[in-house]
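Readers of this paper often ask what the protein records in our data store actually look like. An entry from our holdings is shown next, in its original layout:
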Amino acid sequence: MAYFATLRRILDALYKAGGVLAALFLIAILGLIVIQMVARWTGEVFSGAPDYAGYCMAAASFFAFAYALNHGAHIRVSIALNAMGSKRRWGEIWCFGIGSVLSTYFAYYAIKATYWSRLLNDISQGQDATPIWIPQLAMSIGSVLLAICFWDNLARLIFTGQHAMQSAAIESEGTE
């Protein structure tokens, strides 16, 4: 039982770390925008700033996915699940099952794309000429975190009858 408690703490810490990284990338976007504004006011050129902001936005999005899933921030099919009544648990298992398979599929191809970008030394088309595998790495890590989170929630739902979504906005069975 202590093994599961330790695993639970590790997984929750991973999801929270993803959320913190997402927040840091959002702050980096703010910093890039401010630096670009100052550069324009002073007549300097900060080439590549829009590209870097785009990389930060992608990183923020992918790192936030697992954290957002556990906090009920993703779009859900709550209306359909609530309408299922006593069969709601089976609907949730089906939804988490589909989400688990699709997120694993996406994570696999994200890793594969990152690998090939590194192998082929693919460079971005923007003024920054960044090796494209660097921003793709955030996509790969974030999609793996999301897949782990989906499988974690599916296993929790199957074995305990409850998933980890904590949002008060999610309607539970029997509420109006």
User: Anything to note?
Assistant: Residues 2-160 form one domain. The chain has one domain: 2-160. Residues 55 and 135 are 6 Å apart (CA to CA). The mean pLDDT is 88.
